[in-house]
Write a structure and sequence with these properties.
Elements lengths: L22 E5 L19 H13 L4 E4 L4 H8 L6 E3 L4 E3 L5 E3 L4 H16 L5 E4 L4 E4 L7 H14 L3 E6 L2 E6 L4 H9 L8 E6 L5 H9 L3 E5 L8 E3 L2 H17 L9
Parallel strand pairs: 1-2, 1-10, 2-3, 10-11, 11-12
Antiparallel strand pairs: 3-4, 4-5, 6-7, 7-9, 8-9
Helix pairs in contact: 1-7, 3-4, 5-6
The chain binds magnesium ion.
The site of magnesium ion has 7 residues, from loops.
Length: 266
C-alpha cells in the first residue's frame, strides 16, 4: 500500500493548458470518467463525455488513452462508438496508438490453481464477487464490506503461494496481478511512442491504483490530478466525476479559445 506524506494533500484545481505546449491525456475510468456503482457492470460513461474525449483526442493528434484496471474489451465497450489507445488490467494489457496489443500473461500452471483457490475462498463469503481477467483477478467486496479483512487475507495468501504476482488494493476491491504491471509503467510505455512522445502527460485518477500513474507523470513534469478526497501523490484535485466532465469541457473551450487548428497543437 502507498504511504503518503501529509504535504502531498492538495486542493488546487488543474492549471489551464499553456498555449504552444503539447499535451497527452491519460484517464482512469471507474470513479474518474464513470461514477462508481454497486455492481461493476452497471458503470457507464455518458455519451456526451465520450464525445468530449474524442474531441480532445482529435485535438491532440490522438494522444489520449484510457488507463484502467478493467480489461480492454470492457474499456472498448464503455467508450464505444469511439476507439482509443487503452491500458487494461493496470497495464497488464495495452493497445497502443497503432492498435498493437501488448499483453503480460500468467502461466496456466498458475492461473488454474489460483482461480480454484480464489473461487473456493470467495464462495464462502456471501456477497463477494470474483472477477477473472485472464492474467489477473479482482476480488470485489462492495456488496459485503464486512468481509474486507477476510478478502484481503485470501488475496495475501494467494500471492504468497504463487510466484510472480502482486496485490493491488482499490476501493472495495483487492486485485491480484502480475508483478511489474502498474499504471505508471503503462503511461511510461505510451510516452515512449507516438503520438504521445514529447508531450506533457496529464493523468487523472481517483484510487490507490492511480498513485503509480501520478508518480510517473510527476517524474515527467506532467500534471497529476486526483479525483475526490484523500491524500496522494497528485499535485492537483477535482472533487468528483461531475467536475471531471466540466473540466473536459473547459479543456475543449481552451483549445477553441486558443484558436488552435484541429489535429495540431493545444
Ligand atoms: Mg478509478
Amino acid at each position: 500500500m502507498t504511504t503518503v506524506a501529509p504535504e502531498n494533500i492538495t486542493d488546487t484545481p488543474p492549471p489551464p493548458l499553456q498555449e504552444g505546449r503539447l499535451y497527452a491525456f491519460f484517464f482512469d475510468v471507474d470513479g474518474t470518467l464513470a461514477a462508481l456503482q454497486a455492481e461493476p457492470d452497471a458503470v457507464s460513461i455518458p455519451l456526451i463525455v465520450r464525445d468530449r474525449l474524442l474531441a480532445l483526442s482529435q485535438a491532440t493528434d490522438g494522444a489520449l488513452a484510457l488507463v484502467s484496471g478493467r480489461p480492454i474489451a470492457q474499456l472498448d465497450a464503455l467508450s464505444a462508438p469511439h476507439r482509443f489507445p487503452l491500458a487494461g488490467v493496470h497495464g497488464a494489457e495495452r493497445r497502443d496508438a497503432e492498435s498493437q496489443l501488448h499483453r503480460v500473461t500468467l502461466s496456466e500452471k498458475v492461473v488454474t490453481p489460483l482461480q480454484n483457490m480464489l473461487q473456493q475462498g470467495m464462495s464462502a463469503m456471501q456477497g463477494t464477487l470474483l472477477e477473472a481477467k485472464g492474467m489477473a483477478f479482482a476480488l470485489h467486496y462492495r456488496q459485503a464490506p464486512a468481509f474486507e479483512h477476510q478478502v484481503l487475507a485470501l488475496a495475501e495468501s494467494a500471492v504468497e503461494k504463487f510466484p510472480g504476482l502482486q496485490l493491488q488494493p482499490g476501493k472495495c476491491v483487492v486485485e491480484i496481478k502480475p508483478q511489474g504491471t502498474d499504471k505508471g509503467a503503462a503511461i511510461r510505455a505510451f510516452m515512449q511512442e507516438l503520438p504521445f512522445k514529447g508531450r506533457i502527460p496529464v493523468f487523472v485518477g481517483d484510487d490507490l491504483t492511480d498513485e503509480k500513474g501520478f508518480l510517473a507523470v510527476n517524474a515527467m513534469q506532467g500534471i497529476s490530478v486526483k479525483v475526490g478526497e484523500g491524500a496522494g501523490h497528485a499535485h492537483y484535485r477535482l472533487n468528483d466525476v461531475a467536475d471531471v466532465y466540466d473540466w473536459l469541457e473547459q479543456l475543449l473551450s481552451q483549445i477553441k479559445h486558443n484558436n488552435v487548428g484541429k489535429g495540431s497543437r493545444l
